[in-house]
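Researcher: I'm preparing a figure for a lab meeting and need a structural model of a single chain. I don't have an experimental structure, so a prediction will have to do for now. The sequence is pasted below. Please return the structure as tokens so I can convert it later.
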Amino acid sequence: MSNVYESKHPLVAHKLARLRDKKTEPKKFRELVREIAGLLAYEATADLATSPVEIETPLAKMNAQQLREKIGLVPILRAGLGMVEGIWELMPSAEVWHIGLYRDEKTLKPVEYYNKLPIEPRVAVCLILDPMLATGGSATATAEVLKKWGVKKIKFVGLIAAPEGIKAMQTAHPDIDIYVAAIDSHLNEHAYIVPGLGDAGDRQFGTG
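Model: Understood. Here is the structure written out token by token.
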């Protein structure tokens, strides 16, 4: 799994443990999602291109670096919304585009119900945001939409992944790097990640 990056950061592990706990209330759950997303984005953007710029400090002129690539955040509705704020704190100029998908409970396949992407992309790099990479259906479908849109560089950032979801992404999109806080054991018969954390959308929005 050469393009899969499972975070080894102690802060991520600590926050993820609290996130998984069934006693964690929605308000704290949302805070933890936001915080872990920011930490993962820090790792996922380590290879962004920069260009030199001359600035002047209070003491002298110097050569510094600024981001050359414009970033787009693509949260998969609705659970992915909770990850946006944490990444925006690091990259306030990032554009946000929404793609709505839901999983058909009979087929377990993704169904697209919302897409308001502009005619042409205005960003060089897109981060797909979804807390759970379970079957991989939503992530692979979103990646396909972004590629057809014209985005050349795409990464997936999530909280927890199942081996099945990783395999689906690597099969459909071997060029997309995957950044997660943890890789769990397996999917159960209802396509939930085990041990996982339950339904990330319900736990964020208190609708479980």
